[in-house]
């Protein structure tokens, strides 16, 4: 989904795909796409020969597909940062406050 | 020409900025590496999804933890049998729309597709159990200290050769 982010935590092998969040394998009911994505991912397991290797999977996402990617309610951290914008730099640095802030 | 994916295509605004910055932070640790010891057709394969999938009959992931401390989320995990299907689960991750995976679990945990590959002989076996955790936290200590070792112990007990981690 975001292979650079996955790589940044030291994943040994990465199969990168350009699919929306929550639809990693494809749309509901699209068994053919889901099977090809899983098959290609497992093939990457055989193909990647060095730690941190990345294979870009060839699947195109149909931009005409109407999807609602976001959750029904914004995640708590989004609501929290709207109320406490001075914490945004710490969020950006992945540096949470020592004590739980809510 | 081979496709080069656009990692940020589905992000915008602040979310895009945050993900780009987090990606740049990197890690100082050595990347772990275990060579694949045999062909996939002889491997037992398991799945691990970060979508916080739980059987309806199991304890739900605790979404209130994240409401109380938005830097953190429930660090536990759930076991899903290889027979699990969408009607039997709930998706508790608060940063995605759970609708699609609750309609078809294979969107985030492709158990049926792995069973298909077993039937086709492309993998030896779909593992009897698969796993899910909640893939958002800025306090990963409990996840790393307890959940990850527990899942690894289950995988070793099941003689699993390869695990597909499915981010959402």
How would you summarize this macromolecular structure in one to three sentences?
The complex is a heterodimer of chains A (102) and B (168). Chain A has 102 residues and is mainly alpha-helical. Chain A is built from four helices and two strands, in the order αβαβαα.
Describe the secondary structure blueprint for this structure.
The complex is a heterodimer of chains A (102) and B (168).
Chain A: H1 3-8, E1 13-16, H2 31-47, E2 53-56, H3 76-83, H4 88-92
Parallel strand pairs in A: 1-2
Chain B: H1 13-25, E1 44-49, E2 53-55, H2 64-68, E3 77-81, E4 89-91, H3 99-103, H4 111-119, E5 125-126, E6 129-133, H5 141-157, E7 162-166
Parallel strand pairs in B: 1-5, 1-6, 1-7
Antiparallel strand pairs in B: 2-4, 3-6
Textual characterization of the structure:
The complex is a heterodimer of chains A (102) and B (168). Chain A is mostly helical. Chain A has helices spanning 3-8, 31-47, 76-83, 88-92, and strands at 13-16, 53-56. In chain A, strands 1-2 form a two-stranded parallel sheet. The longest helix of chain A is centred in the middle third of the chain and has 17 residues, at 31-47. Chain A is flat, with a radius of gyration of 18 Å. The model of chain A has no long low-confidence stretch (mean pLDDT 93). Chain B has five helices and seven strands. Chain B is of the alpha/beta class and 168 residues long. The chains are: A mainly alpha (102), B alpha/beta (168).
Helical amount of chain B: 25-40%
Structural class of chain B: alpha/beta
Average pLDDT value of chain A? 93
Q: Any idea how many domains of chain B? A: 1
Rg of chain A computed from alpha carbons, rounded to a whole number of angstroms = 18 Å
- The poorly predicted ranges of chain B are none
Q: How would you describe this structure in keywords?
A:
heterodimer; A: about 100 residues; mainly alpha; two-stranded parallel ribbon; 2 strands; about 10% strand; flat; B: about 170 residues; alpha/beta; five-stranded mixed β-sheet; two-stranded antiparallel sheet; 5 helices; about 30% helix; about 15% strand; globular
